[in-house]
Please model this.
Amino acid sequence: MSVESILRTKGTGVVTIRSDANLEEAAKMLADKKIGAVVVSEDGVAVSGIISERDIVQAIAADGHAALEQPVSSFMTADVITCERTDSVEAIMQTMTEGRFRHVPVVADGALLGIVSIGDVVKRRIEDAEAEAEHLRGFIAGG
Model:
């Protein structure tokens, strides 16, 4: 299974925020959309960074309430690990596990196409395991 199969199911909509937005705006966006990370992009196409719940908590822990007035660019992860539609679900799961992050933007030719979360990956793996189990039950019952 590839990342493309996840995007076909979940869609390609991605929430983005500009790097000059403040951290409070990012926190409100995460809460309003019920998501764990937002892609930082000036134009909704090129990925400049990513800001997650964890980044916001770390910023507040370090700088207190004043952090909320600072730009997202001060706290975002600028060196974003991305993937392509053709990458395997297994490879993305390994990348997320090794990097200890839960969201990977999907890009092609530098353009943002979607985002895959650890929840999306786990859901796909469970669906695959259930389909395989059903196939084996059918094979055993028919054989």
Summary: The chain has one domain: 3-142. The longest helix spans residues 118-142. The beta strands are 16-17, 37-40, 49-52, 103-108, 111-117.
